[in-house]
Design brief:
3 copies of one chain form a homotrimer.
Chain A (H helix, E strand, L loop, with lengths): L2 H24 L9 H13 L1 H8 L8 H4 L25 H5 L9 E4 L2 E4 L4 H4 L4 H8 L6 H6 L2 H11 L2 E3 L4 E3 L4 H6 L1 H5 L4 E10 L2 E9 L29 H5 L1 H5 L9 H7 L1 H9 L12 E2 L9 H5 L3 E2 L5 E3 L11 E2 L7 E2 L33 H15 L5 H34 L16 H23 L11 H23 L1
Parallel strand pairs in A: 7-8
Antiparallel strand pairs in A: 1-2, 3-4, 5-6, 8-9, 10-11
Helix pairs in contact in A: 2-3, 14-15, 18-19, 18-20, 19-20
Chain lengths: 506, 506, 506
């Protein structure tokens, strides 16, 4: 028998197996498990928006009913309701199960194909099956990301400094606050926009003219989005539509969208860290399983991703819990290494717009570094949270490794805070001399040149240095926006101050 | 039967299957389908340059004859000739089929192993089997990348400012134009060099001394390369040698070589966008197929790559065409968000060296922002091209999503153009005051300090902000070379102008 | 028979196969091949640090005894001893085989579970099975990375400039040398720390209180680490613990930890190079094999990684050796493109702290560019090493390609060195005028503003331009920290010099 004929036989055999398996795989979404209402949606949408539909068909939600999902052993469960939600027991979770939910509370509800549909699916909708995660997330700093930025007068001033349009009058430069569309394209892209139904408009679609709401601030999937039902956040920020795969949420690439800039270089630092090296080099090995629940250290993965340290339910191969799942990521964070302007113990409340430092400014630390203690977690809580995080580290590292690592990181928090203090003192001198206009003089503290240099000293360089320390980011603590830039910038602030003193005093 | 013995049996079975299949896989390139001439090449080159040969053996070209390729249904075809090229019907496309083609038109043809061979395979050679793609590409901005840069006196001045060697005389700094070798290593690395046969030289090779052409500008695979047969471009820029895999061309990494710097941060922005997040997290899933033709949204991939939006033939799973394949990428581009110095409607002709703005400068916009309208596409064409692109978006997004996205992007084009205007006005003031030497005074507009800051304001920061807006790049529109840097830079320009006014006027 | 029932049968069949195979896969580490001592370790550690244990279980070391490893044909061998080390023949290499080795020479040896264990496994320990690699590495620049930095007074001054804490006195800025913990978190993170046992302390562990050494400088896996047994280096820098996979070491991501910053942008440049494009796009193809020894060009990979060009044993598919394995990476490096401050022929000795330039400064080149020739390799050796590297290139590229590439790269070395010369002359002028305090005046040459700009001109911009040239990094030679920044920075140095001359002389 010749090689090519044998190959044909074997290939034929393989095709037979595929043909046998195919119906059970591809058939899921055609089964009686799909609700009549969702079938109605699919009728048009598999033609009109085939990408979404295919994406959903590949999702777990399209394959398993909430009732079936709830029958799993507790620790393997992805749903967190106490009892199966009414009307959701027998069908998989399709278009209608999310987009037709709670029509009365959704300002964006509109009549579409004979049903009341809304465009924006919100945490309140997802809470039908995932109430525990929704509840945790609502206490997560991220859920308040819109208000934490927009309801803080100082941060609003930072937004204006960053994104406000500048005009040149011929002799001087003026700057206004940015408009809503610019904010939606800039800071609020990650923080979340405020979605507001402006009007119902007739729109030309592939199926002819249709009435649909025009929603200002849309599209957006920011973590702190203000939704048309009044809820806050977007689960799709991490659980990317319309597959909602736990695999996506667990991969660091997903976090990169909002955590890659010089202000929060978490992803960049992770990628050059040993954890990130291992992830990049080994993640496609057959041993790695990004979908297993619980997620087992050493069996499902060999190095942590962002989710492993901050969110996921982690087990040891023997079944010991290393960390409980939490969507209130604060649970594992003692320090907030993101300085404002100093790194500090984590805020007590997810809503940070309520914080006032000792000088009455809405900042978690005073300009001299004093933390706004009554708005921050206690020393005891900070140590407890650090211990919670360390349980993850200890899954792979010895206690001497872990204690050495955290000792060094806390030293770096102290030393970078000291550098921020030095930069602040130089700026204060400029403010005192009337060379730039600070808060005491009623000025915005972020828009003039020395002020902007000061902002970069803590927002970019001290920050980058701390992220590098926390994850082992090497050059992000030295020549890649690290200490070298921190000291260079401080020196340049000093020189500019001196130059100003000379040139202004003449 | 013990576990290890059973394992041996099963493993043996697997090996038998592999052994059966192997000949049919590995055997392709040994078949009678390889031309006698290519066999001649392989005789030495599988020893001398084994990497290339293996690469080619793994390619589609080594496995399928043009005749067989043309028998595919029209929409699955990768070749675009009307009838099978003479002499190419019965053999696969090997060394000789490309490197021995058109010997008379190739200045780099030399006698080698008894045949007339040329080093540089050109679009004209590839057009033998891919005439439609070659024709489209010739009308693509990229095909003219060499002349668009080198035949524009202003851009030549930019090249000199960027790459020209500087000397310090002891009191001042002088700068000359860079030499050809520096250009080949810098701008022309991507834009393409001009290849010129300098002489035939004897070279020591693994097979003894041989006569070969010395080609200045070689090696290079820039998109606008001027070839020894007079043609323009290099298909290998994207269809990487010698595998020429559609998989490579469709992956965004390939585009990163020339689209990653601060001037064109497309790849960086893509990677942090939701599309890029999904790509990074999910691309290795079994569902993704980077080789399917047509490329089916939702079946072969779950998120677009660069190629999906700009080049590929895209279908819906139902077989509806979302976008026709085009190698004239302009077809889907209404705006050119890459500002020169302002973002503008796309140029009409691929050759942009012919453009003159209202002041006679070879720029698509005047320094006050007025577009050079008669060289740019009409409003009508711009809207049509945007609609073509939107058909791709609508494969996965609702019409309200798409209209909101494009409304926001066009707002960002306007607002960043306004910032460029402000920066230009400050520079104009400096030019008017004789503080720096602009075009009106016969100076190069890119080489002095304020001028360089101005260049960065549009080339880096406005640009980055627009790329971020177009793809959802978050911090690339704010703190990562975005609006923060744009406003900071504008302010620093203003301060430097003021300082100069003070210090020069004393 | 319905589709779902058939699926059940087939799935059942697949499970049977898995069940048959499982014991032989999972059983390895439970076999009699594990030493009694290592079994003792595992007894607790598979509970206490399950991640490490799983990682090791997946490693080659856990599966193959040194005796079995030595029976491979010479060129496929991963061990390099002449005869199997005593006591290691019959068991796999587990915890005790490394951590209990050489207890007498290890200052960090402590009594733990009844045995003498040390925390830090060193090259001297690894040399038991890999003596050739250890010997080569000891002659590699990297092995001396600690002393090359810390025993060089000039580089110490650079460390202080970069990382030293700054204080503002109210009128001026002072800077001290950084403390040890800061250095460990900054430069020494990659260069390696000096590990020192400070004391034995009682520690709370999951198994109750235990006595363990407190080691200053720990954790660290820098390439030049000074170990508690006096040896230098850390094999785990590249051969990541506790899997020690050759796959990890061969992937470029591993190198990124220390080779990604603006001073050594090797990884960033690689990723946008054609080699990197191919790697990113194709590495998951079934053809790629990152574990094969020898590593065969065109069969196991289609484009080189860092390891392929600098370290690995490379063969052609026909079995011809393209490059011998070397852990003395200098073997393939003629030039050191990392300028200090000029690019130069590679240093002769791995210990560069002995180098003195013609002015007696510990730099491989004088400030006017003259190389410290007697400490650098000869022209002949430089050419020979380049030829060794070119053998790798020639595996896939024609001789005209290779000669053109290297000609261009050497031109770029010359032209960037000339730019460094220009920048140095400007700085020298400032030093001569007493505007900043250089070495002649007893000052640190890296800490003042013009000095820092000068550092960036060679350390960031000239360097980036050369890395881009060496690997085809396109924009890293122009707008991404390349020539544009080099010329901009030089001009700004000139302007600052002029401004200082004006303002200081008043």
């Amino acid at each position: 028998m010749g090689g090519s004929r044998r190959a044909v036989y074997v290939l034929a055999g393989i095709w037979v197996i595929i043909w046998i398996l195919l119906p059970s795989w591809a058939g899921a979404q055609d089964s009686e498990n799909i609700s009549a209402q969702t079938r109605g949606c699919l009728g048009c949408h598999q033609t009109v928006t085939p990408g979404i539909v295919s994406d959903w068909k590949n999702s777990r939600m399209a394959k398993i009913t909430p009732a079936a999902a709830s029958e799993k052993p507790a620790r393997q469960r992805r749903v967190s309701f106490d009892s199966v939600p009414e009307n959701l027991g027998g069908t998989v979770v399709g278009c209608a199960e999310c987009h037709n939910l709670h029509p009365d509370t959704h300002d964006d509800t509109f009549s579409h194909g004979g049903t009341d549909v809304h465009t924006v699916v919100t945490p309140e909708d997802c809470a039908t099956c995932h109430p525990v995660e929704r509840q945790q997330f609502s206490q997560n700093l991220m859920a308040e990301a819109y208000g934490n930025l927009m309801d803080n007068s100082l941060y609003e001033a930072l937004i204006t400094a960053a994104s406000g349009p500048m005009k040149f009058t011929g002799t001087k430069l003026t700057q206004k606050a940015p408009d809503a569309e610019t904010n939606a394209d800039a800071c609020l892209f990650c923080h979340g926009t405020k979605l507001k139904v402006e009007k119902i408009e007739e729109r030309d679609t592939a199926m002819g003219p249709m009435e649909m709401p025009e929603i200002s601030g849309w599209p957006n999937q920011g973590v702190g989005r203000i939704n048309p039902d009044g809820s806050k956040g977007s689960c799709a920020a991490c659980h990317t539509r319309h597959r909602f795969s736990i695999k996506t949420a667990r991969k660091p690439d997903t976090c990169s969208q909002c955590h890659k800039g010089p202000d929060v270089p978490a992803y960049k630092v992770y990628k050059v860290s040993k954890h990130g090296n291992i992830y990049s080099a080994m993640k496609d090995s057959e041993e790695w399983d990004f979908s297993a629940v619980p997620w087992t250290v050493g069996r499902d993965m060999e190095a942590p991703t962002c989710a492993a340290c901050h969110v996921s339910l982690l087990d040891s191969p023997g079944g010991r819990v290393l960390a409980e799942r939490t969507h209130r990521m604060n649970d594992r964070l003692g320090w907030r290494i993101f300085g404002l302007p100093y790194a500090h113990a984590h805020p007590e409340s997810a809503d940070t717009s309520i914080i006032r430092n000792k000088n009455g400014l809405p900042l978690p630390t005073a300009l001299d570094g004093t933390p706004a203690e009554k708005f921050l977690i206690s020393e005891k809580t900070r140590v407890e949270r650090t211990r919670t995080m360390q349980q993850v580290c200890l899954g792979c590292h010895s206690s001497s490794w872990v204690s050495g690592h955290f000792r060094r990181m806390e030293h770096t928090i102290d030393s970078t805070n000291a550098q921020t203090r030095t930069a602040t003192e130089i700026l204060q001198k400029a403010w005192d001399a009337g060379l730039e206009s600070g808060p005491a003089a009623g000025g915005r503290p972020f828009d003039e040149t020395l002020e902007r240099m000061w902002v970069e000293s803590w927002l970019f360089y001290a920050n980058s240095t701390r992220f590098a320390s926390a994850m082992g980011g090497a050059d992000y603590g030295v020549f890649e926006n690290g200490r070298w830039h921190l000291t260079r910038n401080t020196r340049e602030m000093m020189e500019l101050l001196e130059l100003r003193q000379k040139t202004e005093n003449r």
